[in-house]
Amino acid sequence: MRHLLADLMDVAAGRADYADVRHVSSLVEGISTRNGHVDLVRRDAEEGFGVRVRVDGAWGFAAARGSERSAAERALERAIAVAKAQPRVKGAAPLVPEAPAQGSYTTALVTDPFDVPLDEKLALMLAADEGMRGDPRVTLTMAQYSAYRQDKTFASSEGALYDQRIVECGGGIAATATSEDDSQVRSYPGSHREHVAQAGWEHFAGLGLVENAARVAEEAVALLSAPQCPAGRMTLVLDGEQTALQVHESVGHAVELDRVLGREASYAGTSFVQVPDLGSLQYGSEHMNVSADATSPGGLGSFGWDDEGVAGHAFPLVSEGVLRGFLSSREAAAEIGLERSGGCMRADGFARQPIIRMTNVNLAPGNAGTLDDLIADTDDGVYMETNRSWSIDNRRLHFQFATEAAWEIRGGERTRLLRNPSYAGITPEFWGRLDAVCSESEWKLWGLLNCGKGEPGQSMHVSHGAAPARFRDVQVGVA
Fold first, then answer.
1. Which H helix or E strand runs over 2?
2. Measuring CA to CA, which of 44, 98, 118, 283 is 20 to 30 A from 477?
3. What average pLDDT does the chain have?
4. Antiparallel, parallel or unpaired: β 161-178 and 102-106
């Protein structure tokens, strides 16, 4: 495949200002159980070429299924035709320089999840499912397993040529309890029955689903009779997963440079952040340090190179509360005068062209100790855990989130369980109220599988590193 793609780029170099090609082979496995029975078993595979060219500043993209030379050549011809059909782009920004990618990248793992027998996977899942059943008020129990493997070969007209294999694996459980007038859900280890990492079967097997099953069901039942989360402005402590989602929605999307430049306005939206804000916008408090890091071990946004051949690397987005960077491509970076791309061009499979996407957007740990230490240091407030829903406007400014469960904090202790917790805010004001982040021992990467963007729509896997964090004077208890 390397020789085929290199030959194709030799041809493209004489017909386009720039060209790249990806051959992508993908394998996906999904398994789920429901109320002690197997609900779904599926395994899907696909492969093909995606070719991108730039002619006189205009881009063209085309894709073709398969692995034959003829398919790649057809895709190149169509991509060139599309580019030539576009209006010429006078004064188009050049692509910022990048050393041609060379080499191979492979996910570090112990056991390829696709080598594990189906019976072994089902045995673990059904045992976890069984552990959540028993109380008649638990009316729905579910276990989820997912595995992904993608093999990619990339070449460009600039001489880049690399191979990359990425493997992801994970899942989770959830229990729903119901009464005559209410239903409550508890999930583990994260919301929506998913905690996926770039790793092998060992990640899923080590999640402790069976060990946590009874507690998950008990908390779902307890929420049915728990008091309503109070409303008002108060101190809010978020668990690591909810903090990670807060980073995703109100930081990651807001600093995508295509959104900042208005290129995603018709679908994904824009951003309250503007290019001149770089280096001056007070995004949050001095405790807020956020970076994009495509080298985070186990991250769903980790890779050797992105889909235009930029090596994975780390760079700051917010430092001590001040905006310091954007998620960018080679073209967008050049357009605003950056010296290097953020390496954030990623595509959902071979049939979609790469667009600016998050890598691993991480909130750095602080020095507040453990979650217990942070709660002990909080006189009064509320602790919220495990996302249930989210809503944010298309400028990434006004938001409202809800979690599955909350606990009242009184006198530095976690006390009664609360149901239907929610909170709301305005992005820079909310992050400006951040006054403590737990230490590195509490920090972990949380995977997100359904980050949607682009036309046609693309769903991307990303991760966010975070630890529990505390925010003062937040609006809690939104109707």
1. helix 2-13
2. 283
3. 96
4. parallel
